[in-house]
Design a protein that fits this description.
The protein is α/β, with parallel strands linked by helices and 328 residues long. It is 35% helix and 18% strand. Helix 6 (174-191) crosses helix 7. The two termini are 19 Å apart.
Protein backbone atom coordinates (compact mmCIF):
# COMPACT_ATOMS: atom_id res chain seq x y z
CA UNK A 1 0.00 0.00 0.00
CA UNK A 2 1.25 3.49 -0.84
CA UNK A 3 2.48 5.03 2.44
CA UNK A 4 0.96 8.16 3.97
CA UNK A 5 3.60 10.81 4.69
CA UNK A 6 2.46 13.53 7.10
CA UNK A 7 4.50 16.74 7.20
CA UNK A 8 4.30 19.27 10.03
CA UNK A 9 4.61 22.64 8.28
CA UNK A 10 7.02 24.07 10.86
CA UNK A 11 6.96 27.56 12.34
CA UNK A 12 4.39 29.48 10.26
CA UNK A 13 6.34 32.74 10.73
CA UNK A 14 9.46 31.20 9.18
CA UNK A 15 10.33 29.42 5.94
CA UNK A 16 8.83 26.05 6.93
CA UNK A 17 5.57 26.48 5.01
CA UNK A 18 7.46 27.89 2.02
CA UNK A 19 9.88 24.99 1.64
CA UNK A 20 7.08 22.46 2.15
CA UNK A 21 4.86 24.04 -0.51
CA UNK A 22 7.73 24.51 -2.97
CA UNK A 23 8.80 20.88 -2.65
CA UNK A 24 5.24 19.62 -3.11
CA UNK A 25 4.63 21.97 -6.03
CA UNK A 26 7.68 20.41 -7.69
CA UNK A 27 6.06 17.01 -7.27
CA UNK A 28 8.54 15.74 -4.67
CA UNK A 29 7.20 12.82 -2.67
CA UNK A 30 3.77 13.01 -4.29
CA UNK A 31 4.32 10.21 -6.82
CA UNK A 32 5.28 7.56 -4.29
CA UNK A 33 3.24 8.58 -1.25
CA UNK A 34 -0.08 9.96 -0.13
CA UNK A 35 0.67 13.44 1.21
CA UNK A 36 -0.87 15.00 4.31
CA UNK A 37 0.14 18.32 5.85
CA UNK A 38 -0.34 19.10 9.54
CA UNK A 39 -0.71 22.79 10.27
CA UNK A 40 -2.69 25.93 9.56
CA UNK A 41 -4.27 26.21 6.15
CA UNK A 42 -4.53 30.00 6.62
CA UNK A 43 -0.78 30.22 7.28
CA UNK A 44 -0.08 28.07 4.23
CA UNK A 45 -2.34 30.22 2.05
CA UNK A 46 -0.55 33.35 3.27
CA UNK A 47 2.80 31.83 2.35
CA UNK A 48 1.49 30.53 -0.96
CA UNK A 49 0.33 34.01 -1.94
CA UNK A 50 3.45 35.81 -0.71
CA UNK A 51 5.83 33.41 -2.46
CA UNK A 52 3.79 32.86 -5.63
CA UNK A 53 3.51 29.08 -5.25
CA UNK A 54 0.93 27.38 -7.47
CA UNK A 55 -0.64 24.64 -5.37
CA UNK A 56 -4.18 23.81 -4.18
CA UNK A 57 -4.90 23.18 -0.49
CA UNK A 58 -7.91 21.66 1.29
CA UNK A 59 -8.48 21.66 5.07
CA UNK A 60 -9.62 18.47 6.82
CA UNK A 61 -10.56 17.95 10.49
CA UNK A 62 -9.11 14.45 10.87
CA UNK A 63 -6.51 12.33 9.11
CA UNK A 64 -9.29 9.90 8.17
CA UNK A 65 -11.01 12.67 6.20
CA UNK A 66 -8.05 13.15 3.84
CA UNK A 67 -8.94 12.26 0.25
CA UNK A 68 -5.47 12.30 -1.34
CA UNK A 69 -6.90 13.49 -4.64
CA UNK A 70 -4.54 14.43 -7.49
CA UNK A 71 -3.75 18.13 -7.63
CA UNK A 72 -4.93 18.90 -4.09
CA UNK A 73 -2.96 18.73 -0.83
CA UNK A 74 -4.95 17.86 2.30
CA UNK A 75 -4.13 19.92 5.41
CA UNK A 76 -5.02 18.56 8.84
CA UNK A 77 -5.97 21.87 10.47
CA UNK A 78 -7.21 21.07 13.98
CA UNK A 79 -5.61 23.84 16.07
CA UNK A 80 -7.21 27.27 16.48
CA UNK A 81 -4.28 29.47 15.41
CA UNK A 82 -5.35 33.08 14.89
CA UNK A 83 -4.11 34.19 11.43
CA UNK A 84 -3.23 37.55 13.03
CA UNK A 85 -0.49 35.76 15.02
CA UNK A 86 1.24 34.70 11.81
CA UNK A 87 3.68 37.53 11.06
CA UNK A 88 6.67 36.67 8.87
CA UNK A 89 9.93 36.98 10.78
CA UNK A 90 8.42 37.38 14.26
CA UNK A 91 8.46 34.68 16.93
CA UNK A 92 5.27 34.27 18.93
CA UNK A 93 4.08 32.04 21.75
CA UNK A 94 0.88 31.34 19.80
CA UNK A 95 2.83 29.89 16.88
CA UNK A 96 5.05 27.97 19.29
CA UNK A 97 1.97 26.40 20.88
CA UNK A 98 0.63 25.51 17.45
CA UNK A 99 3.88 23.80 16.46
CA UNK A 100 3.94 21.73 19.66
CA UNK A 101 0.33 20.66 19.03
CA UNK A 102 1.11 19.74 15.43
CA UNK A 103 4.16 17.71 16.48
CA UNK A 104 2.12 15.86 19.12
CA UNK A 105 -0.49 15.10 16.45
CA UNK A 106 2.14 13.75 14.06
CA UNK A 107 3.65 11.49 16.72
CA UNK A 108 0.24 10.18 17.72
CA UNK A 109 -0.64 9.36 14.10
CA UNK A 110 2.73 7.71 13.55
CA UNK A 111 2.60 5.52 16.64
CA UNK A 112 -0.98 4.51 15.82
CA UNK A 113 0.03 3.48 12.31
CA UNK A 114 -2.40 5.95 10.74
CA UNK A 115 0.54 7.42 8.83
CA UNK A 116 3.70 5.55 7.93
CA UNK A 117 6.09 8.51 7.95
CA UNK A 118 6.25 12.00 9.43
CA UNK A 119 8.44 15.00 8.64
CA UNK A 120 9.16 18.04 10.80
CA UNK A 121 9.73 21.19 8.73
CA UNK A 122 11.95 23.94 10.22
CA UNK A 123 10.84 25.14 13.64
CA UNK A 124 12.01 28.08 15.77
CA UNK A 125 13.52 27.68 19.24
CA UNK A 126 12.52 31.19 20.37
CA UNK A 127 8.84 30.62 19.58
CA UNK A 128 8.89 27.27 21.38
CA UNK A 129 10.54 28.74 24.48
CA UNK A 130 7.96 31.55 24.56
CA UNK A 131 5.35 28.89 25.32
CA UNK A 132 7.02 28.22 28.66
CA UNK A 133 6.70 24.49 28.01
CA UNK A 134 10.12 23.82 26.51
CA UNK A 135 13.64 24.57 27.71
CA UNK A 136 15.78 22.85 25.10
CA UNK A 137 15.18 21.68 21.53
CA UNK A 138 16.58 18.27 22.52
CA UNK A 139 13.31 17.85 24.46
CA UNK A 140 11.58 17.41 21.10
CA UNK A 141 13.50 14.23 20.32
CA UNK A 142 11.22 11.23 20.88
CA UNK A 143 12.28 9.02 23.78
CA UNK A 144 14.34 6.00 22.78
CA UNK A 145 15.48 7.42 19.46
CA UNK A 146 18.74 8.44 17.79
CA UNK A 147 19.24 10.94 14.97
CA UNK A 148 20.64 9.50 11.72
CA UNK A 149 21.91 12.25 9.40
CA UNK A 150 21.78 11.55 5.67
CA UNK A 151 23.70 13.54 3.06
CA UNK A 152 23.92 11.69 -0.25
CA UNK A 153 25.70 8.41 0.43
CA UNK A 154 26.95 9.59 3.83
CA UNK A 155 24.81 8.38 6.75
CA UNK A 156 25.95 9.14 10.29
CA UNK A 157 24.38 8.66 13.73
CA UNK A 158 26.08 9.66 17.03
CA UNK A 159 25.70 7.67 20.22
CA UNK A 160 24.67 10.92 21.98
CA UNK A 161 23.68 14.41 20.89
CA UNK A 162 24.55 17.69 22.63
CA UNK A 163 27.14 16.58 25.19
CA UNK A 164 30.00 18.80 26.35
CA UNK A 165 33.34 17.63 24.98
CA UNK A 166 34.71 17.01 28.46
CA UNK A 167 31.82 14.61 29.13
CA UNK A 168 31.96 12.71 25.82
CA UNK A 169 34.35 9.88 26.87
CA UNK A 170 31.95 8.80 29.64
CA UNK A 171 29.20 8.23 27.04
CA UNK A 172 31.41 5.92 24.96
CA UNK A 173 30.58 2.58 26.55
CA UNK A 174 30.26 -0.95 25.27
CA UNK A 175 26.55 -0.92 26.17
CA UNK A 176 25.74 2.38 24.42
CA UNK A 177 27.55 1.42 21.22
CA UNK A 178 26.12 -2.10 21.10
CA UNK A 179 22.57 -0.85 21.67
CA UNK A 180 22.87 1.65 18.84
CA UNK A 181 24.44 -0.91 16.49
CA UNK A 182 21.50 -3.27 17.06
CA UNK A 183 18.89 -0.54 16.54
CA UNK A 184 20.65 0.87 13.47
CA UNK A 185 21.10 -2.53 11.81
CA UNK A 186 17.46 -3.48 12.40
CA UNK A 187 16.20 -0.12 11.17
CA UNK A 188 18.27 -0.14 7.99
CA UNK A 189 17.09 -3.66 7.19
CA UNK A 190 13.49 -2.56 7.68
CA UNK A 191 14.17 0.36 5.34
CA UNK A 192 15.28 -2.11 2.66
CA UNK A 193 19.06 -2.49 3.03
CA UNK A 194 20.33 -6.06 2.94
CA UNK A 195 22.73 -6.79 5.85
CA UNK A 196 23.92 -3.17 6.13
CA UNK A 197 27.62 -2.49 6.58
CA UNK A 198 28.07 -0.32 9.67
CA UNK A 199 31.37 1.32 10.55
CA UNK A 200 32.15 2.55 14.06
CA UNK A 201 34.30 5.65 14.24
CA UNK A 202 37.05 5.81 16.82
CA UNK A 203 36.95 8.40 19.58
CA UNK A 204 40.68 9.12 19.62
CA UNK A 205 43.05 10.10 16.79
CA UNK A 206 43.68 7.09 14.52
CA UNK A 207 41.28 5.07 16.73
CA UNK A 208 44.13 4.30 19.11
CA UNK A 209 43.16 4.83 22.73
CA UNK A 210 41.76 3.16 25.84
CA UNK A 211 38.13 3.68 24.74
CA UNK A 212 38.80 1.80 21.51
CA UNK A 213 40.40 -1.13 23.36
CA UNK A 214 38.07 -1.32 26.34
CA UNK A 215 34.69 -0.25 24.93
CA UNK A 216 34.48 -0.12 21.15
CA UNK A 217 36.22 -3.36 20.17
CA UNK A 218 34.16 -5.53 22.59
CA UNK A 219 30.93 -3.87 21.39
CA UNK A 220 31.80 -4.49 17.74
CA UNK A 221 32.80 -8.09 18.47
CA UNK A 222 29.47 -8.76 20.19
CA UNK A 223 27.55 -7.12 17.35
CA UNK A 224 29.32 -9.33 14.83
CA UNK A 225 28.48 -12.36 16.97
CA UNK A 226 24.85 -11.22 16.69
CA UNK A 227 25.11 -11.31 12.89
CA UNK A 228 25.61 -7.57 12.34
CA UNK A 229 28.19 -6.45 9.79
CA UNK A 230 29.89 -4.06 12.22
CA UNK A 231 33.37 -2.74 11.38
CA UNK A 232 36.07 -0.88 13.24
CA UNK A 233 36.81 1.08 15.18
CA UNK A 234 37.91 3.05 12.11
CA UNK A 235 40.09 6.14 12.34
CA UNK A 236 37.72 9.15 12.48
CA UNK A 237 39.79 11.02 9.90
CA UNK A 238 39.03 8.34 7.30
CA UNK A 239 35.71 6.67 8.08
CA UNK A 240 33.40 9.36 6.68
CA UNK A 241 35.21 9.53 3.34
CA UNK A 242 35.02 5.73 3.16
CA UNK A 243 31.25 5.92 3.63
CA UNK A 244 30.91 8.53 0.89
CA UNK A 245 32.88 6.19 -1.40
CA UNK A 246 30.38 3.39 -0.71
CA UNK A 247 32.52 1.18 1.54
CA UNK A 248 30.03 1.48 4.43
CA UNK A 249 26.26 1.98 4.52
CA UNK A 250 26.33 4.02 7.74
CA UNK A 251 28.71 5.26 10.42
CA UNK A 252 28.24 5.34 14.18
CA UNK A 253 30.05 8.45 15.44
CA UNK A 254 31.18 9.07 19.00
CA UNK A 255 29.72 12.55 19.46
CA UNK A 256 27.55 15.12 17.72
CA UNK A 257 30.08 17.32 15.93
CA UNK A 258 32.35 14.45 14.89
CA UNK A 259 29.76 13.28 12.38
CA UNK A 260 27.88 16.53 11.85
CA UNK A 261 30.95 18.33 10.50
CA UNK A 262 31.38 15.59 7.90
CA UNK A 263 27.70 15.68 6.89
CA UNK A 264 27.50 19.45 6.55
CA UNK A 265 30.79 19.58 4.67
CA UNK A 266 29.86 16.81 2.23
CA UNK A 267 26.51 18.15 0.97
CA UNK A 268 24.41 20.48 3.12
CA UNK A 269 21.59 21.33 0.71
CA UNK A 270 19.56 18.18 0.25
CA UNK A 271 20.53 16.66 3.60
CA UNK A 272 17.91 15.38 6.03
CA UNK A 273 17.79 13.64 9.40
CA UNK A 274 15.97 10.45 10.43
CA UNK A 275 14.96 9.51 13.96
CA UNK A 276 15.66 5.79 14.34
CA UNK A 277 14.31 3.55 17.08
CA UNK A 278 10.68 4.45 16.38
CA UNK A 279 7.93 2.21 14.96
CA UNK A 280 7.46 4.63 12.05
CA UNK A 281 9.70 6.78 9.82
CA UNK A 282 10.28 10.26 11.26
CA UNK A 283 12.47 12.89 9.59
CA UNK A 284 13.54 16.47 10.21
CA UNK A 285 15.30 19.17 8.18
CA UNK A 286 18.85 20.27 9.14
CA UNK A 287 18.29 24.01 8.93
CA UNK A 288 16.35 26.64 10.85
CA UNK A 289 13.28 28.80 10.31
CA UNK A 290 15.30 31.64 8.72
CA UNK A 291 13.07 34.49 9.89
CA UNK A 292 15.18 36.98 7.96
CA UNK A 293 13.99 35.64 4.59
CA UNK A 294 10.53 34.33 5.55
CA UNK A 295 7.79 35.25 3.09
CA UNK A 296 10.24 36.38 0.41
CA UNK A 297 10.09 33.26 -1.76
CA UNK A 298 13.88 32.76 -1.84
CA UNK A 299 14.36 29.84 0.58
CA UNK A 300 16.02 26.72 -0.85
CA UNK A 301 13.77 23.66 -0.63
CA UNK A 302 16.21 20.90 -1.62
CA UNK A 303 16.42 19.54 1.94
CA UNK A 304 12.65 19.33 2.22
CA UNK A 305 12.42 17.70 -1.19
CA UNK A 306 15.03 15.14 -0.08
CA UNK A 307 13.07 14.48 3.10
CA UNK A 308 9.84 13.88 1.17
CA UNK A 309 11.54 11.48 -1.25
CA UNK A 310 13.37 9.70 1.54
CA UNK A 311 10.31 9.36 3.78
CA UNK A 312 8.23 7.85 0.98
CA UNK A 313 10.95 5.41 -0.04
CA UNK A 314 11.87 4.26 3.47
CA UNK A 315 8.26 3.90 4.59
CA UNK A 316 7.65 1.62 1.60
CA UNK A 317 10.78 -0.43 2.41
CA UNK A 318 12.49 0.58 -0.83
CA UNK A 319 15.68 1.88 0.78
CA UNK A 320 17.32 5.26 0.26
CA UNK A 321 16.36 6.95 -3.02
CA UNK A 322 19.16 7.16 -5.53
CA UNK A 323 21.43 4.74 -3.65
CA UNK A 324 23.73 2.55 -5.79
CA UNK A 325 22.97 -1.14 -6.15
CA UNK A 326 23.71 -2.96 -2.91
CA UNK A 327 23.15 0.18 -0.79
CA UNK A 328 19.39 0.45 -1.13
Amino acid sequence: MTPVVATVIGDPCGIGPEVVLKALADGQGRRDARTLLIGSRAALEKTRAACGIDIALRAVDTAAAARFEPGVIDVLDAFALDPADVVFGQASAACGEAVLHWLDTAERLGRAGTVQATIMAPIDSTALRLTGRLEDLDDLQPAGSWLLRVSGGLRVVPIAEHVLMRDVPATVTQASVLTLLRVLAGTLERFGLRRPRIAVAGLNPHAMGPEEREQLRPAIAQARADGIDARGPVSPDAVFRQCIEGRHDAVVSMYHDQGQIAVKTAVFEGACSIYIGLPYVHLSIPHGSAYDIAGKGIAQHQSMAAALRTAASLAAGHGFPGAPAGQH
